[in-house]
Structures are given as C-alpha cells and as structure tokens.
Amino acid sequence: MELVSILNLSYLVASILFIVGIKQLAHPKTASRGNLLGALGMLIAVVATLFDQAILTYDWIIVGVLIGSIIGIILAIKIQMTAMPQLVAVLNGFGGIASVFVAGAALQLSIPKYAFAVNYQEIVSIVFSAIVGGITFSGSFIAFGKLQGFITEKAVRYPGDQLVKILVGLTAVGLGVYGCLVPTDESIYWILSGVSLLLGIFLVIPIGGADMPVVISLLNSYSGIAASATGFVLNNNVLIISGSLVGASGIILTQIMCKAMNRSLTNVLFGGFGAVATEMKDDGDFYSGKVKSTSAEEVAMLLDVARTVVIVPGYGMAVAQAQHTVRDLYQLLTSRGVDVTFAIHPVAGRMPGHMNVLLAEADIPYDRLKEMDEINSTFENVDVVIVNGANDVTNPLAKTDPKSPIAGMPILDVGNAKTVVVIKRSLSPGFAGVPNPLFIADNCLMLFGDGKKATQEMIAALKES
C-alpha cells in the first residue's frame, strides 16, 4: 500500500475517533472513554503526519514532546477544578498562536513559488489563520487574566471603544486583502498577526465577568476555526475535520449559553454586564434591616424535617472547593430518606458545564443533576432549597426589572420553595453587579460564611440532631 493511502487511512481513522469521542463526551458515564478515544485519534494523526513529512531528524520533536508532556502532567496535577475555566482559556490561546506560527512557516516555504504562480486557496487560508489565530491567542489570555483576577472582571469601557474595534478590524481586513494580493511580502503577514493580536485584546477587554462562559466557548470555537484554516494551508484532512468539529461545537455551545442568558451574541460582544455595575445603588441601602440571618443549627432543624431538598451550586461553592463537602451532605440526607437533587443553571460558574464537572468530580450521581428547564416547575413542592454560592442565576430582578443588566435572563425559581437558605460570604453582588431581592424575601434565610465551612457545620449539626 502506498504511503499516501496509508496516510489518508490513518487520517480517516483519527477523524472517526474524534467524532465518536465527542459523541461519548455528551454523557458522564461514557465521557472518560470518549476522552481516551479522542486522545488516541490525535496520537494516530500526529504519528502519521510525522512519517509523511519525511523529517530528517526527530531530535527537536522528541524534546518538544517531552517538555509538553511534563508541563501537561504538572498542570493536570496542580490545577484545581475551580481553575479549569482559566486552563481552558489558556489552551484555547495556545491553539490560536500555534495556527499563526504554522501558517507563517507555510508562507515562508511557499514564497518562492508565489513568484511564478499564486495558490489563492493557500494564501487566503494563511491570512485567515493569522487573523483568527491572533484574535484567539490575545483574547484567550485576556479572558484568563479576568478569570484569574490579574485584570478587572468588570467591563472595561471608554469613549469611542466601539469605533476603535471597528477601525482595528478594518485594518486587519485591509492588511489581509493586501497580503493576498502581494503574497511575497512576508512582513505583511507578521504585521497582520500583530494587528489581530491587538484586535483580540480590544474585543475581550470590554466584556464583563458575567459573560465569561460565553466568551470561553466562543474562543474555543475560534481556535477550532483557526486550526481548520491551517489544515487548508497544509492540505491536511484530519486538521480540517478536527478543526471544523471544534469550531462547530463551540459555536453551538455559544448559542446555547446566549439562549440561557436571554442575550444575543452581538450584545455579549459589544455590551457587557460590568459596564452598568457602578451605576447601581449601594447594596447596604437595599438590604438594610431586611435580611434574616440564620445558623447551621437552625438549618439542620429545617433539614431534619424536610422530605425534599434541592441544592443549587454556584461559583462560590467552586471557590470554597466545597463540592466534596456538599456530597457528604447529600449522602447524609439521602441516608435519612430525603429526596435530594441539584439544580444546574447553564451559566452557573465561569464556563459551560462548570458545576457539572465539579459535582461529577465529587461523585454525585448524574441523575441527581437537574437542568433549569426540568426543575423550575417543581420548586413549589420543595421543602428546602440550599443555594451554595450562586447569585445572578437566582436573582428575581431578571424577571421584575426591565432595566436590570440581567433583564430577561432565565433564572432558577428558588423563591417558590417553602424555605430558601443562601450560603454566602457576604451580601456582595454577583458578576452582574446588582443586588439580589431573593436575600430579603420572607422565605429566605442567609447563612453567612465560607461554602465549605458552612456545609461542614450543617453536617455536624445534623448528626447531633
């Protein structure tokens, strides 16, 4: 069998493994297997490509693999599940910059040929890789900075910011067109890459922290699109297919996130929750004299007679790393015959599926996790709802105040339950920067404290009751 046939067959097998792997990632029971299948597909694709390129020496490749493997192992061990959104953002960025460098290297090799005949499919793909890859890299690291706290989570707005983005975007398009018309000028490519990096910064810096789940899924899509464009540059089928899969799935997920927030993608990219946060009145005036504090012992008394309990996880639970303690509370309650479920909002946390991942890590049975649309109609029959660190996704202002920055966003209707217990460090607002009327509702009790410590105290009080 010819080398080309073996190569194409290897790419076909790798592509099938990618598709099957993504399909199996859709359910926790098969997700691990799906991840392994995807990794196997990538291994086959990489090995086949290395043989195809007739590389004279593999020394640097082996060194690169070893360095990358060591970094990957360290990250896998050290990174907490709460920091997974930051890691995803960084990996998206690396995917983008890789496309920029690979396309740039391909341009260097092709410039001598362009003096005689220009391959417009190739040069257009190279230019497209530079634009999308550059935006992905810088945008992802701005997102990482916002998530990690290096950069303010608020939407950074300034007079004329939209005009600046338009001008920088038009500059990138103009350089791209010129690069296609004069492909032998390599300097244009790197100038274009620099402008694209700048555009990525201008696009993401005005987006507030509340929109980060959407931004991360969108940047994930960008990294796939950039990889697919690079596949056209290299005439590499598996790169085209895998990049298209990532790009398409990222766009679909972005649309799901936008729907969950009742906002358009345009509004996310050119709006920003944080832009209005400073205009809201002081939370102290809003809550003054209306909040009912509680204790772990009092909550334990409520849970002792409850028959149905719903736990709502949020980013506060993630920060406190309380998922395992929440599991202990779940097991204690279920051992007493209490029906316990978890209400999951699509944009709770800082990336799509953040709460699902945390609870899966704590071995919470997946059938106990209920999506918002499934559980909202049942809150009226729930004895106790425990909100652990969630804020905006339970805020009634989304339904009652058309001027609120979260107006129209679907929320978990926890206020319909008989009793709501909110575990929170303070009355500080969520990412949207607005107060939460749930905290002063007649059926709401505030248990102030760290999500993990408060849950541990509840467990101890329950065991003594």
Percentage beta strand: 5-15%
* Strand line-up in the sheet with most strands: 3-2-1-4-5-6
The SS-based structural class is alpha/beta
The main β sheet shows up as: 6 strands, parallel
Helix percentage range: 55-70%
Total helical segments: 18
What does this entry look like structurally?
This protein is an alpha/beta fold. The protein folds into two domains: 79-270, no CATH class; 296-464, TPP-binding domain (Rossmann fold). It has helices at 3-24, 28-52, 59-78, 84-114, 120-148, 161-181, 186-204, 212-234, 237-260, 265-270, 283-287, 296-305, 315-319, 323-335, 354-361, 372-375, 397-400, 451-464; strands at residues 308-313, 339-344, 369-371, 384-388, 419-424, 444-448. Strands 3-2-1-4-5-6 form a six-stranded parallel sheet. Mean pLDDT is 87; it is low at 272-282.
Short description:
This protein is of the alpha/beta class and about 475 residues long.
